[in-house]
Each structure stands twice: as structure tokens, then as C-alpha cells.
């Protein structure tokens, strides 16, 4: 009888251990969660999509104008023009300002390659300068020394969701009579001194790639301006340089339209976006609080300036040993990403074609940054698992 009880006890412990491991395995942690977002907005999104399917105006249908009006209202700019993707948004902006071969554009060395790509693809020389160590945005103190007679514009990137230092950048641009184009691919909805990103410069450009804070269900983007003439020119460039009618082309353009289906999705998602920004802030604050003590291990949380708000496109830590960090989190089922492991200036296609100033901070960041899961529908349970996994990297060191 006692032997049977011992067997049953061991069996019970085995089942309990199995259930614990199964529970650990069931906890699926996405890097971003678009499925939960879709479920929350399913009626509105489905209604918009099926409306397009019914009327059949897949290109430049009424949803495009509706979306642009909603974007204009949200950002506060006079004009919003949707376009095919964030890269094309940058190209349209550069073409509208008549910046081309032989000219130079100053930008950050630390961003996704599209920033420099659209400069170089037009025959413009990208001029890379260093970043601010705390915000990862372009260091405005390094801009003026990079200006030459060929400089036509400054293109700051509002990286990880936080606007760059536009007050200082605009002052430099005004002194030297330069344009400012904001690459706001990661910062749509962020604010700087109370104004929205995309409404902080001559032209603001953003991306609606699905993984962005506001994303559609494919590629998408938009350009914003308060200038009547620029809006007219960009409208023309977006549709093959079209003028008075479909077969009149007074300027060079591109096929840069955003389709009606994507605009329907964006309009639906925009209705929830203010709430999502608040939730991203909530998730970021929980991360910041949990990781505040890790500074003693040379782990640094993001720095957000007091005069601006981030939309937290990424939650990015600076860690001393990234390989070890990622390996540990992978074992715990926590996905990570590196934004970005190589500076744009160090990419093979750009090393010989760009001007590169001292970018030592950008190169250092490329070795140490790592991003954690970030999305508005993250539950406390999932976030606690991530937090415990991160803190667990340094637990042994702390105990010793």
C-alpha cells in the first residue's frame, strides 16, 4: 500500500512538472502582435475592405481621400499625401525640393538603409554624421561642420519613435538656407513641443509598413507639408509627374500611389491609435522601472527628452554583451532584434559613395543595441516573463 502511494506521489510530481513545462511552452511571445490588434478592430477593418471590394475602385478610390483627411487631422499639417511606401515618401520629398545629382544631404549614420538609399538613388551624395549617445538620433552639434556649398538639405531620422532635436536643426537650416526633411518612418504620432512628428519640418515622411506603430497590411507611406506649392508638386510626382490630365506630364514622377485597400485599413486603425500610443507608453514605463537597477551592469534604458514624447516603435536597450544577452533570452522564449547591427556608412554600397564624418558613437551603438518585444496589446503576464528573462541575464553576477 505504501509503495503504491509512493508511486502515485512520484507520478503526481511528474505530471505537475510536465504541466509546468507545458505552460512555459504555451506562452508564445511575439516581437509584435498584429493578430490581437486585428481582432480588436475586425469589424471596422473588414467593413472597410469589403467596401472597396464592392465598389472596385482599387486605385485612388474614395478611401484614399478619406485616409488623407484623417491623417491631416491627426498630424495637424495642412497636407497629407499617401504613397506606396516610406522609401518612396523620401524620394518624392527630395524630388519635390529639386535636390539631385551633385547635391549633398546631411543625415544620420544610424538608421535603416532606406534613409540613405533614397538619397543616393537620385544621384545625391549622402553625408553621414554621428548620433547622440542617449537618444540615438542625429547629433545636431555635428551638423554644421558637415555643411558645404553643395549641401541642400538635412534629413534627421526620428529613430525608435522619438523626434530628433528639431529646434536646433531648424536653426542651423535657417542660417544656411537649407531644407529639412524628417524621416519619421518610426515616429508617426510622436510629439515635439506639442507638435506631431511629420509636422516639424518642410516635409515629413513616414512609413506604414505593418511593423510600424501605425501600419497597414502591406507597404505604405505618406508625405506631409504645410506648403501649398510643395503639396501640388508632390501630388504630381506621386502619379508619374501627371499634370492637367492623365496623359500630361510636366515633370518627372514615379508610380507612388497607395491603394484603396491599404487606406481603408489605415483609417480603421487610426481610430484606435491614440489609445495604442498610451499603451506603448505604459509598456515602456514598466520596462524602464524594471530595468532601472541594471545600470550598474552597464545596461542602459532609452532616454526620452522632456520636451517630446515617443511612440516607442522599438524598446531598445544598450547592453555590454549582446550575444550573451540574446542567447539567454532565446532560451527563455523571448525574441529580440537588432536595430541596427551595421551603420549605413559602413554598408558596402555606401562606403565609397558617401561622405563620412566621425561616426564613432554610431558604430559603438551598432555593437550594443538590442530591442525587446513592444506592442500596445502586450499583457502584464507576457511582459513580466520578458522582464524576468532580462533580469535573469545578470542575476548570477548580482548574487556573486
Strand order of the largest sheet: 1-9-8-5-4-2-3-12
**CA radius of gyration:** 24 Å
CATH level 4 superfamily of the largest domain: Type I PLP-dependent aspartate aminotransferase-like (Major domain)
Strand-residue proportion: 5-15%
Estimate nothing, just give the exact number of structural domains. 2
> How many strands, which pairing sense, and closed or not: the largest β-sheet?
8 strands, mixed
Average pLDDT, to the nearest integer? 93
Straight-line distance between termini: 47 Å
Tell me, briefly, the overall form. Answer: globular
CATH architecture of the largest domain: 3-Layer(aba) Sandwich
Descriptive terms for the model:
400 residues; Aspartate Aminotransferase, domain 2; Aspartate Aminotransferase, domain 1; 2 domains; 3-stranded antiparallel beta sheet
Task: Write a structural description.
By secondary structure, the chain is α/β, with parallel strands linked by helices. The chain has two domains: 36-268, Aspartate Aminotransferase, domain 2, CATH 3.40.640; 273-399, Alpha-Beta Complex (Aspartate Aminotransferase, domain 1). 43% of the residues lie in helices and 13% in strands. It is built from twelve helices and 13 strands.
How are the SSEs ordered, and which strands pair?
Blueprint: H1 2-26, H2 34-55, H3 62-75, E1 79-83, H4 86-96, E2 104-108, H5 114-120, E3 125-129, E4 151-155, H6 166-176, E5 179-183, E6 191-192, E7 195-196, E8 203-207, E9 221-225, H7 228-238, H8 260-291, E10 308-309, E11 315-318, H9 322-331, E12 355-356, H10 360-368, E13 369-372, H11 380-393, H12 395-399
Parallel strand pairs: 2-3, 2-4, 3-12, 4-5, 5-8
Antiparallel strand pairs: 1-9, 6-7, 6-10, 8-9, 11-13
Helix pairs in contact: 2-8, 3-8, 4-5, 4-7, 8-11, 9-11
Amino acid at each position: 500500500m505504501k509503495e503504491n502511494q509512493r508511486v502515485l506521489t512520484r507520478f503526481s510530481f511528474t505530471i505537475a512538472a510536465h504541466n509546468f513545462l507545458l505552460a512555459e511552452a504555451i506562452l508564445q511571445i511575439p516581437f509584435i502582435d498584429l493578430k490581437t490588434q486585428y481582432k480588436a478592430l475586425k469589424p471596422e477593418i473588414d467593413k472597410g475592405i469589403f467596401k472597396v471590394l464592392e465598389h472596385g475602385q482599387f486605385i485612388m478610390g474614395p478611401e484614399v481621400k478619406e485616409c488623407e483627411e484623417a491623417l491631416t487631422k491627426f498630424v495637424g499639417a495642412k497636407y497629407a499625401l499617401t504613397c506606396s511606401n516610406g522609401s518612396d515618401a523620401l524620394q518624392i520629398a527630395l524630388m519635390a525640393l529639386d535636390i539631385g545629382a551633385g547635391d549633398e544631404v546631411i543625415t544620420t549614420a544610424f538608421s535603416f538603409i532606406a534613409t540613405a538609399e533614397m538619397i543616393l538613388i537620385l544621384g545625391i551624395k549622402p553625408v553621414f554624421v554621428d548620433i547622440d549617445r542617449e537618444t540615438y538620433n542625429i547629433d545636431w552639434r555635428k551638423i554644421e561642420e558637415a555643411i558645404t556649398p553643395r549641401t541642400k538639405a538635412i534629413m534627421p531620422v526620428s529613430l525608435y519613435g522619438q523626434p530628433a532635436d528639431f529646434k536646433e536643426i531648424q536653426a542651423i537650416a535657417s542660417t544656411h538656407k537649407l531644407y529639412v526633411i524628417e524621416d519619421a518612418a518610426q515616429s508617426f504620432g510622436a510629439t515635439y513641443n506639442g507638435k506631431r512628428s511629420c509636422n516639424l519640418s518642410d516635409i515629413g515622411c513616414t512609413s506604414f509598413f505593418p511593423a510600424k506603430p501605425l501600419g497597414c497590411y502591406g507597404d505604405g507611406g505618406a508625405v506631409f507639408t504645410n506648403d501649398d506649392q510643395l503639396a501640388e508638386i508632390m501630388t504630381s510626382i506621386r502619379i508619374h509627374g501627371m499634370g492637367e490630365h492623365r496623359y500630361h506630364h510636366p515633370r518627372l514622377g514615379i508610380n507612388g500611389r497607395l491603394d484603396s485597400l491599404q487606406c481603408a485599413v489605415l483609417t480603421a486603425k487610426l481610430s484606435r491609435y491614440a489609445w495604442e500610443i498610451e499603451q506603448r507608453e505604459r509598456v515602456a514605463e514598466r520596462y524602464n522601472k524594471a530595468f532601472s537597477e541594471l545600470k550598474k551592469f552597464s545596461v542602459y534604458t532609452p532616454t526620452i527628452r522632456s520636451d517630446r514624447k515617443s511612440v516607442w516603435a522599438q524598446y531598445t536597450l544598450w547592453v555590454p554583451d549582446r550575444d550573451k544577452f540574446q542567447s539567454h533570452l532565446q532560451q527563455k522564449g523571448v525574441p529580440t532584434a537588432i536595430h541596427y547591427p551595421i551603420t549605413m556608412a559602413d554598408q558596402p554600397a555606401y562606403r565609397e559613395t558617401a561622405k563620412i564624418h566621425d561616426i564613432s558613437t554610431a558604430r559603438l551603438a551598432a555593437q550594443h543595441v538590442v530591442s525587446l518585444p513592444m506592442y500596445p496589446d502586450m499583457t502584464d503576464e507576457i511582459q513580466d516573463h520578458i522582464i524576468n528573462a532580462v533580469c535573469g541575464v545578470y542575476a548570477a553576477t548580482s548574487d556573486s
